[in-house]
Structures are given as structure tokens and as C-alpha cells.
Amino acid sequence: MKRTGFRHRLKHIAAGITSAVTAAGMMLYLPASVFAAEDVTGTTSDGYDYLITAAGVAKITGYSGEDKATITALSVPESVKGVTVTVIDGTAFQGMKTVTSLTIPDTVETIERHAFDSLGISELHLPENLKLFEVGVIAGCENLRELTVPKGVPADVFRRYSYIGGWDATFKDSYIEKIIFEDGIETIPHQVCAGNDHITEIVIPESVTKIGYNAFDDGDTVTEFDLPDGLLEIEANAFEDTGMSELRLPDSLTAIGRDAFKNCPNLTALTLPAGINDADYALRDSYIEELTFADGMKAAPEYVAANAGHLQKVNIPRSMTALNLHAFIGSGIKEFTLPKQITYTNAPFRESALETIHFEEGLTRIPDECVKFAGKLTKIDWADSVTEIGSYAFGYCTALETVVIPDTVTVIGGNAFYSCEGITSLTIPDNLPLISTSAFYGTKSLKYVYLPLIQFPEGNGYSENLFSSSGLETIEFAPEYPVIPASVCSYCRSLKEIKWPAAPTEIRSSAFYDCEALETVQIPDTVTLIGSNAFNTCTSLSDLHLPASLEQLGEKAFCNTTALKYVYLPHELTAHGSASFYNSGIEHIDIADGITVIGRTFEGLPELRSVTLPDSLKRIGNSAFEGDVKLCDVALPPTLEYIGAAAFCSCSSLIRISIPKTVKTIERNAFGSGYQKPSGLQEIWFEDGMQRIPECACSGAENLQIAHIPSSVTEIGNSAFCGCRSLETVDAPQADIKHYQDSFT
Description:
- It is a single chain.
- By secondary structure, the chain is mainly β.
- It has a domain at 145-262: Ribonuclease Inhibitor (Leucine-rich repeat, LRR (right-handed beta-alpha superhelix), Alpha-Beta Horseshoe), CATH 3.80.10.10.
- A hairpin with a 2-residue loop joins β5 and β6.
- The protein is elongated, with a radius of gyration of 46 Å.
- The termini are far apart.
- The relative contact order is 0.03.
């Protein structure tokens, strides 16, 4: 028996049901989707072509009645074959110019592209359930001048489509002049005016709380908008390219989206309500020249006028105390008066056209970051009431050339003029109590500065990095100045002259770090302390005078002073940090009599050839001359008692040395080899009168060949010659010398 497919059997079952019902004297209509396993097409009795998809969606696809050429009224059926009509197909009635009346049932949800193109209708009632109104639906409908948008439509009901080279706009080639939004609608849909060159009036009901993005974009023929008092939000690009010349924003408004007023050439003034708290880039690329913040507003929103290139004037209410992050970044404003009540700013004028800043009388503190990054600022109009300049207040104002800080100022905050690279003239008032860290850091055009005496609190002077990385060539300290502050001129690579105060006692850490042009330093005779890294990397320093008063020399104080050839250490110097002259160019050192201890002060001097040690010296500390590969002339004084570990380690040019009889301790590897740097010691004398050669005296001296041991020696300490694998001769007149198993291993 031949099998019958399911579709064939289903048709017979359906026919049977219909026959049975008909025989009973009644007719039953079941939805076509119950039976259709594929798309079904057909035409209604009154001429409407339809398509019922396999998914059960009914679309009206056209009209093919005999009167198609003359028909004046169309009424789209609510259903076909028992299936509710929800879609009017693209081009369904396109070109039927005789049609002057069109009725659409509320069941319709989608009207596809160009469905009513060029109809002769003068009115159109959109269905209440409309969800999608595609591009060109009413294109060419010359008599249709007014359109009402139902309250139930979604925000994205009107859509435009992209294509290569541009956009297809929703209302392209339409003739709509007036759009009315039905009372009860809450959101104005997106792209209402897209592509419409005729619209002049838009009616917005009181029910509206949101205007969707690009809602009136392209509405350059619309010159007036009446916004409802309950409006809460305007989304991005909402009024872009409109022709309005004024706009009242309701007090209820809290948020405005990006580019909301972009390219509105007639709108030159705007007042923002007090409730606005979110308005990032709202005025970007607008033509707003005057911006007013309504009374009651407490803070200018972040980025509110960002890239508002035409902005010239901003009106600030007394209620406002803050200008939030980048409020006017990239704007065209050239002159601004900061009201006295403003206490908080966050670089509001960054990259703007601001040239002049005025401070209202009554303002006492210039807020942090007040005009930070205002790269075109050239003039500061100070108020007599200003006593404090906040942190980064003028940071990165690179066009500033002359700065005269008023006598009323008592505090300059950290980084206040940070990286103001254009400053050539700076005047700081006398008796200034406090200047904080890096206040004038990076002022690269500043060649000279006079640093007046300040009244430092609790003994603290200027904070660190005051003029770091500036272009200073000369710095002059007030005569009464007692302390040279830490990092005051660090990285001032053009500094050539220091005009010292009359009687300073300290030069603090890194004060002149990396001042590579500094050639001569005559440190005043009153200085007792030079801090760590004070002159580190002053590579041109060739003439150095250390005063007799000097007591403390910090770690790496003159490290990397490669042009320095000679140094004299004064007798009062009792404390010296490690590597004080590390990697300098010193060839000879004189150490004054009176010094009893040497630490790691001269470690790593690649050019050092000779050193004069005083008779007062008792201790040479660990690594004191380690790595001084050219050191060849050292006379140890007769008072020496201690030689520390690695004291002369890796001194590859030190071939001979004599050890005084007073030496009681020589630590391990004192004359040995270091990492990739061998010891050069070949011959050693122990002075007559020495009774015991200390432990580890020559340990690690791998090139030692001859050791002269006087007859006075009765004992050789453990490991005294450990690792001396080149030792060939031990000149020891006294044959009976006590030694240990490891003395020569």
C-alpha cells in the first residue's frame, strides 16, 4: 500500500471536519495556522492580498481589486482566514495615488518600508499597538501634513537604516508639517524628525517624561519646542540639527544626554535647571554662547559644557559651590570670574580657550585644580582677599609667563604651578608660612628665582621638589635662610649658579640631584650636614669645597659626579654615608687629620688612584674602598686598628701594601676579589713589632705572591692566608710561629 504523507492526511482530516460541521447545519472557522505547514498566500473577497506565514503571522501584501486604478478608500482587514493581521508588507499600497482614505486596524504592529508610498491620503491614524514604522512608509504622500503618534508606541517605533555611504531616514521624502504626540505617551520615540524637511510644529503633551535619543534630529525646520513641566530626561542628540532659537528647560529635568543640542546654529543661550545632575557632553558642538545655571543649583555637572566651542559666558548662581570634573573642558570660554563661594573645582577648564581668570573679592582660597590644564591661560587677576592657593590650582597652565603671588597669600599648595612650562618671571612674597611639595615643579622656562625667607612651621622649610625639573640657571636664597630644602632644585639640569644664604646649616637630601650643568659648588662654612643624594649625578661638578664645619655627609651625596677629580674631607666630619662619592671621577682624596673612622664613603670610585689618610685614623670600615680599580697608592697610618670586610676588595691596581703593627683586626676578604673584579695585591708587609697576624688578614687575595712577616710575629691567625692560591714566598725570619690548620688553606 502506498504511504501518504502527513501533510496530505492532514488536509483530508480537515476536509472531513469541515464536511461534518457543515452537515450539522453550521460552519466552523479555524485559524489557518492550525493547518498550514508552509506560507499561504491569497486574496480576500474585497481584493486585499495576504500572506500567512508558517509561523502564523498574517501580512497584507497589497491590493489587487478590479478598481485598483480608481479606488479612493482602503480599509485594511483586521484578519484573514481567521488570523489576526499584524503586518502591512513593504510597498503594499505604494503608488496608489487615488487613495485618499486609509483605515488601519489597531491589530497592526508593523508597517514595513514604503507601504503607503505616494498615497493621496490627507490623514493617517496609526494603530494603538504599533511597534515598528519603517523607512519611507509615507514617502511621497503630498497631502499628508499631520501625524498623530499613539500613546502606546515604544521608543524605537521609528527607525532608520544604515547603508553604504549613509542612512535611510524614517520620514525621508515625506511632507509631514506637524506631529502630535497623543496625551498619555511618556517617551518621545527616537528619530521622529529623521529625514523630514517640512516639519515645523511638534506638540508634546504633559505626560511626557523622556525625550528619546535623536528624537528631533534633522528637525532643522522646527523653530519652537514647548517642553512639559514633568520632563525628567533628554537623551543623546535629541535636538541635534534643529532650527530653534530658544528653549525653556523645565525645572523637573534631571538628565541631558550627549550632544543633545549639537549643531543648533540659532540656539545661542540656555539655562540649565537646578535639578540637573547628569549632563556629560550635553553642549558638545553646540552654538551656545551664554550658559546660565539656575538659582538653587549646587554644582556644575561633570563635562556639562565639554567641547562647547562657542561658549563665551557662564552665569553662576550664589547657590553653586562646585565646578565638577572637566565641566568646561575644550570649551570656547576665554574669560571667567570665579565666584567667592566656589570651594571645589576639578580641572573644569581643561583644554579650554580660557585666557584670563578673575577671582571675586571675598574669595579666600583658590580651590584645588581650579584652572588645571588650562593651557591658554595667560592672565591671573588676583583678589586682595586670597590667602591660599590650592593644590594643582594652576597646574599645567603652560601659557602663563609672569606670576606675581600677592603678599596676602600665606599658603601655596602642593603642585600649585606644576609644569607651568611658560613661566619666565616668578615673584614669591616675603614671610610666606608654607609652600607645599612640587609647587613650581617643571617650570622649564624659569631661569632665575629669588627664594625669600619663610616662617616655617615647627622647623619645616619648603617642602620637597619645589623647583624640580625647572629650567633654573640661578637660584638665590634669602640671606637669613637656614636650611636648603630637600629636592629644592632636583633635576634642574640647567642650574649653574647657587647664591647661598649667609649662614645655612643644612643641605637636605636630593637638594641639587641631577643638576648636570653645575660646575662649581662652594658650600658655606656654616654647613654641618649634607643630606643623601644632595649632589648626586651633578656630572659637570669639577670644583667642590667642603667646609671645615661639615660633620655629616649623607649616603650617595656626591654619587655620579664624574667630572670631580679631587676632594678634601674636613676634620669635623664624623658621620659619612655609604657610597657618598660612588662612581665619581675623583682621582685623589685628602682626608683631614682628626677623622678617626672611614665608612663606605669611597666605595666604587673607578678613577681613584691615591688617598692620603690622616694619622688620627683608627678604623677603615667595610667596603671602604671596594671596587676602586685604579687605586694604587695607599699608606695606612700608624694609628690604624681595624680594617673592615672587603675594605680594599677588587682594588686590582693595588699591588703592594704595608700593614701597621697597630692593626688588631682584618676582616674577611679585606684585600680579596669581588664579583668579576680580581684583587691586585701581590705583596704585603706586616710592620715589625706586630705580634699576631689577624684572622683572614689576606683571605681571598688570590694574586698574592709574597708575604713579609717580621720576627716579632708569634702567631698567624686562622684563615689569615685562606684562598691565597698564588702565594709562593712567605718571608718569616722567626721559624717557630704558631699557626692554625686553616691559616694557609
